[in-house]
Automatic annotation (TrEMBL):
UniProt-listed Pfam families: TerC
The family this protein is said to belong to: Belongs to the TerC family.
Species lineage: Bacteria, Bacillati, Cyanobacteriota, Cyanophyceae, Nostocales
UniProt key word Transmembrane: yes
Record's protein name: DUF475 domain-containing protein
TM segment ranges: 20-43, 55-74, 117-141, 147-168, 203-220
NCBIfam families cross-referenced by the UniProt entry: R_switched_YkoY (TIGR03716)
InterPro entries in UniProt: CHP03716_TM_YkoY, Integral_membrane_TerC
Annotated membrane topology: Multi-pass membrane protein
Keywords: Membrane, Transmembrane, Transmembrane helix
Species of origin: Nostoc favosum CHAB5714
Length: 240
């Protein structure tokens, strides 16, 4: 029985396996920055920080199950361009919803508001699944051994939860970070759309990573309340 499971997962340990696993984990970390900020921004649609934390925890548990299912069926899924089209449409819809919705007065939050965890959890899970359509393809290109890809995905989802937790805190500190995150979501959505139209039009991975880091650099460029602290000294001088 175990032999059959190992054969299905292509479980053949070799000296190169730890190196490949390290590469997969690094790829997950690099490619999940935009994913993490998107999930953090979605979780902000809940009422308080405790609900945000629970939404990320439960949402990523469901996302992990969906991601493992995607990996195990990747060969079949890759035969149907409709999955990538749906993923692209979903991500671009999230971006459209973000930039066309009104900003909340209290926390600069765009996007949907949720009344309960049950509303937020599916959105978080399916957002991660849409991102995974791109990252799983990259992971399988690195290694054909499913057990390595599954291990990388497991470590990746834990890293994603940690990064999303950091971004939730940073979203309160940096004014442009949420918008920057959704711009990177748009890049991933457009990349999936290009894969459907013509694979030759898809930019290489290093260009995507460089673009994401440049956009996030802009997102971290301005702290909330910076303008206020600059104006206050001017007011005090006028009063003198």
């Amino acid at each position: 029985m175990l032999d059959r499971i190992f054969d299905y997962l292509d479980f053949h340990f070799s000296v190169e396996a730890p190196i490949v696993l390290l590469i997969l984990v690094l790829l997950e970390a690099l490619l999940s920055a935009d994913n993490a900020i998107a999930l953090a921004a979605i979780a902000r649609g809940l009422e308080d920080k405790e609900l945000e934390r629970k939404a990320l925890n439960f949402g990523l548990v469901v996302a992990y199950v969906l991601r493992i299912t995607l990996i195990l069926t990747a060969t079949w899924v890759q035969q149907f361009w409709q999955f990538e089209l749906l993923g692209a449409a979903y991500l671009l819809w999230l971006v459209f919803q973000h930039f066309t919705s009104e900003e909340a007065n209290d926390d600069h939050h765009h996007g949907p508001r949720f009344n309960s965890l049950l509303q937020a959890i599916p959105v978080i899970a399916f957002t991660d699944l849409a991102f995974s359509l791109d990252s799983v393809t990259t992971a399988i290109a690195v290694s054909q051994e499913k057990w390595l890809v599954l291990t990388g995905a497991t470590i990746g989802i834990i890293t994603l939860r940690f990064m999303a937790g950091l971004f939730i805190r940073w979203l309160d500190e940096y004014e442009n970070l949420e918008d920057a995150g959704y711009v990177t979501v748009a890049l991933v959505g457009l990349r999936l759309l290009l894969k459907v139209v013509n694979d030759n039009l898809v930019p290489p991975e290093w260009i995507m990573i460089a673009a994401i880091f440049l956009i996030l650099g802009w997102g971290f460029s301005k702290r909330v309340g910076t303008e206020l602290t600059q104006v206050e000294p001017e007011k005090s001088e006028v009063s003198k």
